[in-house]
Design a protein that fits this description.
The complex is a heterodimer of chains A (615) and B (265).
Chain A lengths: L1 H19 L14 E6 L3 E3 L4 E10 L14 E15 L2 E14 L3 E5 L3 E4 L2 E4 L3 E6 L53 E7 L10 E9 L8 E3 L6 E5 L4 E7 L2 E14 L3 E5 L3 E4 L8 E4 L3 E5 L10 E14 L3 E3 L4 E11 L15 E3 L3 E9 L2 E14 L3 E5 L3 E6 L4 E6 L3 E6 L5 H4 L13 H4 L11 E4 L8 H6 L2 H21 L1 H21 L5 H17 L8 H10 L4 H19 L8 H18 L1
Parallel strand pairs in A: 2-9, 20-27, 21-29
Antiparallel strand pairs in A: 1-3, 3-5, 4-5, 6-9, 7-8, 10-11, 11-15, 12-17, 13-15, 14-15, 16-19, 17-18, 20-22, 22-25, 23-25, 24-25, 26-29, 27-28
Chain B lengths: L1 H24 L2 E3 L2 H12 L3 H13 L2 E2 L1 H14 L2 H14 L4 H13 L13 H10 L4 H24 L4 H33 L2 E4 L3 E5 L7 E7 L3 E8 L2 E5 L6 E5 L3 E3 L2
Antiparallel strand pairs in B: 3-6, 3-9, 4-5, 6-7, 7-8
Helix pairs in contact in B: 1-8, 2-3, 3-4, 4-5, 5-6, 7-9, 8-9
Chain lengths: 615, 265
């Protein structure tokens, strides 16, 4: 039996382990077998020309670390770029990273491009050194060729600010130097941010402008980290302005980015600093430029807002159209409401719909369209609402009121659409009655897949599941898996109990003594003439079985002592003796001189209960 | 006699437990037939946007019905949006895998989805093969209930086997016990695999028209590979607004914007 129980428990454990141990898809890694090569487009150049150095790294599996470039003594890096290609061959992925550098020699003679190294999985791989012979040029610098890397990624969004000696540089509009910030005093880079309003109303448009000034060549495109604009809803102006500026004897290239902000929090609200990170390339340290934080004092709106006002700030117009003014019961009408203008279009609240109970309405769908017109964000928001008439007759779709706050006049305005009258027939017409919902039921797959005609829609079911959760996500389900284990343990426990019961008759008798005594008392109630005999017998038998020893031969004192030793209190012992004495008298005395038999049985019953608790 | 009573009581308790599990999985309520009829009429008259609006509203109320997802898939298909069509067909198939209409339309939509290149045939392990086979017949809830029922049946048969004296009856019962245990193991493994895949490697469908796969999360890590609308992918993780995915069979692995995919579950 124990072996069987062990087997069952083992099966349970295996099952639980099997359920919880999920197959893992190990990705086999055949290991990196990298190759790194360095090559140039020409080995003999003059100081007017450039050399293109291309470094290629081929690795199997995951992305490798970046190669370590040598010092490139005798050269100046004019331009750098990189690209990545991923190939999958027979299920194995390989990555090819390519780095390209345009180098201009700064001295003549034999210049050495030292080996390029890369570390992959703790092993260092390197290229061979390359020798370039440089002759003196005549001063006419050649243009730098365009990158020719396959799979070149697109440039980051921030514009490149590199200058080239070749004259490819396109001249940009110049602004009046008097418009330059006063802090611009000849440094290489400068960054500033400003807003057009310091005390806007909540929800009013604020224009945030960031300007980056740079006067030197950049090896890489700088990285722009905009502020988080906490407390504002914002939208970036996709176009950026580029112009140049002469200041402190230097020519600055200026890049201007604008963001439209709509404050959502009243009171002092700060715009965190913006950052521009300038890479120093492989040969220098980079620099991080930060703007100063800007604090706006956002004003609350006046208190006299109309009931239909729901937060719109700006200048708006509203229009509504319906697709038909003649329909039938349960035939839908589409109401299209368009709110257009300038302001916080993208987070306008839905208008207050007020159609009557004769219409069944479905949730509206909103579509936005915004664009920048100069420095203002304009656009429209269109709501499409499906209305289904539930009764026939001339029904009305009431006008819709829309209110907004105009910051220019500092007042609330309310505008309305026109109401619509719709004639609703009582009978369905057209497609609605001609084509009832058809459920094709279960048909085998046929040539539909070749004909590309899909099967039609299904009719609504009578009942559906709503708000349910997957059974496997309910803890109660997993608890039910343990039910057989508890039942088995319960059964084993029951069997153990039965075994103990059968193997210990005295214990069984002890446990059943009170029940047996109760049965005897109930039987004695039915035989009043034998009560006095029965009571003694019941008490003696009960006490004998409880103490698992016969007491019929004991004297009264011996019985008292025995009960005392079992922890029975004196009062109870006295009552037991009393009961026995009354029974003895009842057996031998004349009738009418003793307590009634029923009274005696009741006393005995009470005694049995109290003795059962004690013994 | 006592043993028989014990077995009967055990059986009754297990049946009650099974009924409790079935009750846990069903939250049936009366369907909004009118709304579905209106949406179907809009679909038939070519007003797809409005039909989508009503189906989406029904789903947003917590309705999980294969017919609704199927109908919504049809609307997206008619609009030419294969990605969202496939997503909704697959959602319908998860609820009712035996529905031939769902399988037919899903096949049509999949056949029309363009892949950027022909990918090699997917070799699935035995566990995934069994999971797919069972998944084509039983929804996840049905699999869960059947697995539980078989586990209860095994437990009861095992108790009966324990009570029997050695002989032909006991041997026969032993075979029944073994067979039941085997079925429990198969269903349990399939169920566990579906739960695991649903949590760790959920499936999704590309809903953008065409999206380039990047080797890392970021626009400057573009590769020469792309995925088209309707491509079915397995999601491996997310990082910010980027999602790490692989195509079935792990033939392609990369990152695309989260907004370009729609989760099936």
């Amino acid at each position: 039996m124990k072996n069987l129980i062990r087997s069952f428990i083992l099966i349970m454990v295996v099952l639980v382990a099997g359920l919880s141990a999920m197959p893992a898809f190990a990705q086999s890694n055949n290991g990196n077998n990298p190759t790194i090569t360095a090559e140039v487009d020409q080995y003999h150049v003059s100081t007017d020309e450039t050399v293109m150095l291309m470094i290629t790294l081929d690795v199997m599996g995951s992305n490798p670390s970046k190669p370590q470039l040598p010092s490139l003594a005798g050269f100046t890096v004019i331009r750098s770029s990189s690209g990545t290609q991923i190939k999958v061959v027979n299920g194995e992925m390989s990555i090819q990273e390519t780095y390209q550098y345009n180098l201009r020699p700064t001295q003549t003679g034999e210049l050495v491009i030292e080996p390029v190294t890369v570390n992959v999985n703790g092993i260092t791989y390197s290229t061979d050194p390359i020798i370039i012979t440089v002759a003196q040029g005549n001063g006419n610098k050649q243009p730098v060729p365009n990158p020719s890397l396959p799979g070149m990624p697109s440039l980051p969004s921030f514009p490149s600010s590199s200058f080239f000696d070749s004259g490819i540089f396109d001249p940009e509009p110049q602004i009046d130097p008097s418009e330059a910030p006063t802090e611009l005093a000849g440094q290489d880079y400068f960054i500033e941010a400003e807003v057009d309003k310091m005390s806007p109303f909540v929800g009013e448009q604020v224009l945030y402008t960031l300007r980056f000034y740079n006067a030197v060549r950049l090896y890489d495109d700088p990285e722009y980290r905009p502020p988080g604009f906490t407390g504002f809803w914002h939208e970036n102006q996709p176009d950026q302005a580029n112009y140049s500026l002469q200041q402190a004897g230097r020519t600055y290239k200026v890049t201007e980015l604008q963001t439209v902000l709509f404050p959502t929090v009243i009171g002092k609200t700060s715009i965190e600093p913006a950052e521009i990170i300038i890479s120093g390339g492989f040969f220098g340290n980079g620099q991080i430029l930060r703007t100063q934080p800007t604090t706006l004092d956002v004003q609350t709106l006046p208190q006299n807002s109309p009931t239909s006002y729901q937060g719109a700030v700006g200048r708006f117009d509203i229009q509504a159209v319906i697709d038909t003014n003649h329909t039938a019961i349960n035939e839908p009408v589409t109401l299209k409401v368009t709110i257009s203008g300038q302001g916080n279009i993208n987070n306008l609240a839905e208008p207050v719909w007020n159609e009557g109970p004769e219409w069944r309405a479905f949730d509206s769908q909103a579509n936005n369209s915004t664009q920048f017109e100069g420095e203002k964000l304009i656009g429209s928001r269109t709501y499409e609402r499906i209305l289904v008439p539930t009764q026939a007759g001339n029904l009305f779709i009431p006008a819709i009121e829309f209110s907004y706050f105009d910051p220019e006049t500092s007042s609330f305005q309310s505008i309305n659409t026109q109401p619509f009258e719709v004639v609703v027939e009582s009978n369905s017409t057209g497609l609605s009655s001609a084509s009832p919902d058809i459920n094709y039921g279960s048909e085998p797959l046929n040539n539909d897949s070749l004909n590309n005609s899909i099967r039609p829609n299904k009719a609504a079911p009578t009942n559906w599941i709503k708000g349910g959760t997957l059974l496997t996500k309910l803890p109660g389900y997993w608890l039910l898996w343990t039910l057989p284990l508890f039942l088995l343990m319960g059964q084993l426990g029951w069997q153990q109990y039965l075994k103990r019961w059968q193997n210990n008759p005295s214990q069984r008798r002890r446990n059943e003594a009170a029940k047996k005594a109760s049965r005897a008392i109930r039987a004695a109630y039915k035989r009043p003439a034998e009560v006095y005999d029965a009571v003694v017998q019941i008490l003696v038998t009960f006490i004998s079985e409880k103490l698992t020893r016969p007491i019929s031969g004991l004297t009264q004192d011996e019985l008292d002592e025995l009960l005392r030793s079992e922890g029975v209190d004196e009062d109870l012992i006295e009552r037991v003796q009393n009961c026995i004495t009354l029974s003895e008298f009842g057996r031998f005395a004349q009738s009418g001189e003793n307590s009634s038999p029923q009274e005696l049985l009741r006393r005995t019953e009470k005694l049995i209960v109290e003795l059962d608790k004690t013994l | 006699m006592r043993n028989l009573i014990t077995l009967v009581v055990t059986g009754i308790i297990l049946i009650i437990g099974l009924l409790a599990a079935i009750n846990m999985s069903t939250h049936s309520s009366e369907a909004d037939i009118e709304a579905v009829s209106i949406a179907n009429k809009l679909y038939e008259s070519g007003q797809y946007d409005q039909a989508i609006q009503i189906y989406q509203q029904i789903i947003s109320q917590g309705v999980q019905d294969s017919a609704i997802y199927y109908n919504l898939g049809n609307v997206y298909y008619k609009q030419g949006d294969l990605g969202l069509a496939i997503v909704n067909y697959e959602r319908a198939a998860l609820i009712n895998p035996r529905d031939s209409d769902i399988q037919a339309n899903l096949t049509i939509a999949r056949n029309q989805a363009v892949q950027s290149e022909s990918l090699p045939a997917i070799a699935m392990g035995p566990v995934n093969s069994i999971t797919r086979l069972i998944g084509s017949w039983l929804s996840i809830d049905e699999t869960a209930i059947l697995a539980l029922a078989l586990w209860f049946a095994f437990s009861l048969l095992f108790l009966v086997w324990l009570q029997l004296e050695p002989g032909k009856a006991r041997t026969g019962m032993g075979y029944a016990v073994f067979m039941t245990l085997f079925l429990v193991a198969v269903l349990g493994l399939s169920l566990g695999n579906r739960i695991y895949n649903g949590k760790v490697h959920p499936t999704a469908v590309v809903v953008a028209n065409e999206i380039t796969i990047n080797s890392q999360p970021g626009d400057k890590y573009a590769t020469e590979y792309s995925l088209h609308n309707g491509a079915e992918v397995i999601l491996l993780g997310t990082q910010g607004e980027w999602v790490h995915l692989s195509t079935p069979g792990e033939t392609l692995d990369g990152w695309i914007p989260l907004s370009a995919v729609e989760y099936v579950l």
